[in-house]
Input
Amino acid sequence: RVVAGSIDPGAHAVTLSGGGIVSVEGGSYRATNTIVGNLAVNNGGRLLFDVDGTGAGQYDRLTVTGNVSAGADSHLVFDVADFATGGTAASVLAYGSRSGSFSSVDLQGNAAAYAATALYDSPPGALSVHFNRGPSISGATFSVAENSANASVVGTVSASDADSDDTLAFSITA
Output
């Protein structure tokens, strides 16, 4: 558990496996911590961050000065219990270099049904995460009488998306 500050393992790497967890915690503030050296996450290892929003100071951040190695069964976990809106948390994990990709991006406390996407090397040398909720859509199934006149109104669809950076698009399929 990294609460505030740095882990300096000397010449050794920090390795998370067999369910091991590095929890980047800041309490009432969001933590920015550092691992001096390398970090390996595999075999059920979890890297856990708290996220309250996507603005500055609203999510935990971890910097690894060396290589981050994401191996088999590695989990990137975000606690979104207090998250208010979607968007992108930039540079959640910064690294000197990276090998592999996390097996999964998991969300804890996800009552609002967010989906998360890891954005590797966005910006270069960092992992950002985009959080999104699906839109709310009503009135999406209609039928048309065979002999209806051209330009007949078939139905109305209304939709909204709580995530302000999303665009809604519609299509008609037969």
User: Anything to note?
Assistant: The mean pLDDT is 80. The CA atoms of residues 19 and 44 lie 5 Å apart. The longest strand covers residues 87-99. The chain has no helices and 14 strands.
